[in-house]
Structures are given as structure tokens and as C-alpha cells.
Amino acid sequence: MKILIIKLRNIGDVLLISPLFYNLKKYYGDSCILDVLVNAGTEKILQTQYLNQIHTLKRNPNKLQRIYDELALLKAIKKEKYDMVIGLTNGERSAFLAFWSGAKIRVGFPPNSFWSKNLYTHKLTPKRQHNLEDNLEALRILNIPILSKKVLAPIPQKTTNLNNLPPHFIHLHFFSRLFFKCLDDSFCAKIIDTITQTYHIPCVLTAAKDSRESKKLQNILKLCHSKPLYFDGTLTLPEVSLLNSKALAFVGVDTGIMHLSAANNIPTFAFFGPSVVASWGPWDNDLDSSTYNKQNGIQQMGKHFVYQEDFDCIPCGRTGCNDTKISDCLLSRLNQQKALSYLLDFLNNIIRHH
């Protein structure tokens, strides 16, 4: 059985398809050849233990190069002669690629457009549940037993970039590609100083290789009284995963690195703004079902903790308040004192048992 899984989203979304790998391999056995197609730049988040090959969709700004890349991808997919394609992105591109592949079994979330809504042979319906469970619907519709819901972090690679890490530390990642998910810089600095002063444990910050993230990181560092360690876009995703796996705990925002931390079974404290926690909260690999049952407010799944204000407008699911790219619930209206109190309670339990 030759299978292609398509997920054309960001790193966190891509990471949450990984529970399918183990279950498909277990069901189809040694005859199962498993490939994935993801956006270029997200492939490093994947654990490759169960994968045969990774196709990437390159979005080159040069139009001619982009056309060349897309034609090459179409040719590569056709050449593989897949038996099954699972499209886990609810867009026309995934539906078309599934159809183009020639696979007899095509599972996915059908787009609304007339020409593409019937391209899947097995149509999935989005439900009010965690995104990980939405991905597993592809197995349920095929009556494939779900033996594991564990999210698979990339297998750590040896690196010299992390030789100077302290033996005990808290990992912090305050950045998202979507800046409306981020906290105020001064509050980030306050979190770092509070942790450092309360526990006398170093904080280690990470940021992606991105000019906006770097600017935000440098501003946070200027506002800090303490001197945290930091990696300003100098680590690969597998290296960030390795760093995270050595941490006592993780503190950050609703982002792919948060999902990576949860996959590493590191106690994770996440600040959420407009997003639906029931769909996107950090998944606890020791549990089989989500415990994010509230609309908003403080929520927990196993060892992981989500702080979100309980305003009536939350979660709005928008790109900031009224789509302004600014989320007041993470900035001016965030109750910093209350948030810090919950964060310290979370860390007290971890450090006391360490």
C-alpha cells in the first residue's frame, strides 16, 4: 500500500499529522510505503522514522521558477502511482493533487467549489474537536484502528550548537509567524525576570531566522534586568527540538514550537489569544482524549496548561481584534498579575518535583 499524506500548512499543523504515521504502518505492515507532501520549510519538524520520502511545495517568488517547481511536483506525484492519498488541508490544491495522483482511494476535506468538491472518494467533515482528532478522521472513515494518538517530535540529531546549555533551564519561545498571537515585549521581559528571580534557574530563549522575530527578541532582551541565554535564528528545527527536550518546562505562545514542546513531553505553558484552545491546545501524549472543554479561560490537558482570558469575544478566531493584527486580549487587556500567578503555580509543581 503506497500512501501520500498532504498537509500544506505551518509547522504546528504539520506536526499534528504525525499520529497517522504509526497507525498506518501498524495496519498495513511492511507493505506500507508512506510519503508526505508539505510546504517547503516545514519538513524539518517531521520525524522520519516511518516515512519513505518527503515532497515539498516550494513557493518561489520568481513566477517562472514557481511554475517549474510545481510542474516538477506534479510529475513526481504522478510517477509514484499512489494507492491512497489523504488530503488534510481543506483547499482546492490538496483535492486536485489527490485526484491528479490517480490514487483509487482519496480521503480529504472537500472544498466548496463546484469543480473540486467531488474529487475525494471519502469525504471528511470538520468537527468541533482538536485538530489532531480531525486528522485522525481520515483513519476512522477507512475503519483503520487508532492504536496511538502520540505526536512524534523529530529525532534529536547531535550538534555542537547546544554544548553550552545549562544543566537545568526553562525554554521560552515568545514568537509566532502570526504576530497577533504574540505578547507585549515588556510582559515577556517580566516573565523572564520573574522566573530568574524566583527560581534562580536560567531562561533560554529561541527565535526563528526572521527579521521581525529578531527585532522583537532584541527588544525583549533590552527590557530584561536578567541576562537570559538566547538563540536568535541560529538553530534548525531539530536543534530547537533537542534544546526543548532538555528543558524543565516550556513557556510560550500559540505557535508550532509549543506543539513541538508538547510532543517532547515537556510541561508546556501557553498563552492563547484569538485561537480556539479546544482545536489547538498543546496535546498531552500521555492522554487519549482532549480535556480542553471550555470556550475560554484557564484550561489544562495533563501536564500542559493554557492561559487565555475569559472575555465574551474569545475565541474570535480572527487575525486580531476586528482583523487588525493586534490582539488586545494578549496585550492591553491581558491580566498580567493573574497570568504570572498561574505561571508560577505551574512552575512550582514542576520545580518542586524536580
From TrEMBL:
InterPro entries: Glyco_trans_9, LPS_LOS_Heptosyltrfase. The keyword Transcription does not apply. GO terms for molecular function: ADP-heptose-lipopolysaccharide heptosyltransferase activity. Gene3D superfamilies: Glycogen Phosphorylase B (3.40.50.2000). One of its GO terms (biological process) is lipopolysaccharide core region biosynthetic process. It holds the Pfam family Glyco_transf_9. Signal peptide: none annotated. Keywords: Glycosyltransferase, Transferase. GO terms for cellular component: cytosol. This is Putative lipopolysaccharide heptosyltransferase III.
